[in-house]
Design goal:
64% of the residues lie in helices and 0% in strands. By secondary structure, it is an all-alpha fold.
């Protein structure tokens, strides 16, 4: 966030023109090293973004749209582990609510 705090909205973050994943991944590696944080790739950032949205309660349909998936099924298959974890959390909430009725 500190790298883009003065960045104008709707403007490319990295460069203008044609960009290759390998170029961005290399630049991210350098920036991660400088920031003393674990190295992450563009794909890793995409996956993290989607995971955070799902954990925040954003619908699968919205996440699928943001990721450019043609079908929610693709998103559901890719993030099945997160969906299962959220369902387990929901089950715990349900059991808690049921226990308060007694």
């Amino acid at each position: 966030s500190q790298l883009i705090k003065n960045h104008e909205n709707e403007q490319p973050i990295f460069v203008e023109g044609r960009v290759f994943n390998s170029t961005i991944n290399h630049r991210l590696e350098i920036l991660c090293d400088q920031a003393h944080v674990p190295i992450i790739s563009v794909h890793g950032l995409r996956h993290t973004h989607a995971s955070l949205l799902l954990f925040a309660g954003v619908s699968i349909a919205t996440v699928a749209q943001r990721l450019g998936h043609s079908s929610m099924t693709t998103t559901q298959k890719t993030y099945l582990h997160i969906i299962a974890e959220l369902e387990a959390q929901d089950s715990q909430k349900i059991m808690h609510q049921m226990a308060t009725l007694m």
